[in-house]
Design brief:
The chain is 42% helix and 12% strand. The protein has 81 residues and is α+β, with helices and mostly antiparallel strands. The longest helix has 18 residues. It starts with a helix and ends in an 8-residue tail after the last helix.
């Protein structure tokens, strides 16, 4: 049991001593506030423009997000499912 504790502590210290993984920031998402009044209550949605999946600007945003995700997950050693 004592050897297990020492091994666990050594592994923990080794993990803490390793360099942190730096991840680039994700693509920016532009806020385009739209305010609607529903049942007398004004509601502002800054990302309503993303609801139109066929709009060229939404498709460009989706493509940028997918490329970012692929660039991060593509570095992982596990095979993709």
């Amino acid at each position: 049991m004592h050897a297990f504790k020492i091994t666990s502590l050594a592994l923990l210290l080794a993990a803490c001593a390793s360099r942190p993984v730096t991840v680039p920031p994700p693509p920016q998402t532009v806020a385009k506030p739209v305010t609607e009044t529903l049942h007398g209550v004004p509601i502002t949605d800054s990302y309503q423009w993303l609801e139109n999946q066929e709009a060229p600007e939404t498709r460009a945003w989706i493509d940028a997000q997918n490329a970012y995700t692929d660039s991060i997950l593509g570095r992982r050693p596990e095979p993709a499912l």
